[in-house]
Amino acid sequence: MSYRTVLMIVVLVPALLLGAAALSGITVPVPQWGRDYVLRFILVDEQGPLDLPPVAGPNDPSRPLVVIDAGHGGRDPGAIGTDPEGRKINEKDITLAIALALRDELLRQGGIRVALTRADDRILALPHRPEIARQLEADLFISIHADSAGERGDVSGASIYTLSDEASSEAAARFAARENDADRLNGITIEGQSAAVSTILVELSQQRTQEDALAFAGLVVREGAGKLAFVPKPQRAAGLAVLRAPDVPSVLFESGFVTNLTDRARLTTPEGRAQYADVLARAIRVYFARRSDAAAGGE
């Protein structure tokens, strides 16, 4: 069908129909505000100001603080799988369940303070997640996720991400430009510095936090050996926005694939979530013990 023919159909057919309706005395209503078939929506900024969550655990600010981030939430379901009965399995529910299990395990063992970026099914702006950790002056930030392999049900295993070097440099420049008036980052003063100097100082801060994040990622893989299934080469790096806090060691833990039968069984059962919580809690305790020993050795 030629372009001219399509144009004639689009223009002439409605005109002929309206003309026929007018000749026959039929009134065609025109949508107007106030009629019941015209819907109006009020757009509300769901995020608003950053609301810091409560901190659970010892009432002692000298104790290490872990901020656990359950990925996705609210109208953002994340990856979607299907159970044997055909029911949907949403990543947002899995991540929240694992985050709650990890929080409870850390509190049960004692000695570590814990905060959750979200403790229920709510949407949370991506930049707010690491910013919560920054404002709470967290010692470690863990963002929990699950993955999907589409139609490939054979893909399985956990992985853990830290920030890539390229993304780190880019993030440092943007952070310095946005917060050039910040007081300190990891003990480094950046207030009143030029943009170039601020970027360098933020990069120095990020180098330290990246080293700590890499050390923690290695502990997760070590503690999970023989307990959790990992993908080949589970320690990975990427330019993930949620990892770009320059002064908080941050990792993203991909717990498994909702599209894999074995992973799904671990992700969706209390017993499976307890395994994740146990592995992550062990890695966290070893990580802080090593940092404490290193600090004591430097005194």
Note down, in words, how this protein is organized.
With 299 residues, the protein is an alpha/beta fold. It has helices spanning 3-23, 91-109, 128-135, 165-178, 195-224, 261-267, 270-298, and strands at residues 65-70, 80-82, 88-90, 113-116, 140-147, 158-163, 184-185, 188-189, 230-238, 250-257. The chain has one domain (65-298): 3-Layer(aba) Sandwich (Aminopeptidase). The chain has seven helices and ten strands. The strands form three sheets. It has a six-stranded mixed β-sheet with strand order 4-1-5-10-6-9, sandwiched between helices. A two-stranded antiparallel sheet has the order 2-3. Strands 7-8 form a two-stranded antiparallel sheet. A hairpin with a 2-residue loop joins strand 7 and strand 8 (188-189).
Name its key features.
299 residues; alpha/beta; Aminopeptidase; six-stranded mixed beta sheet; 7 helices
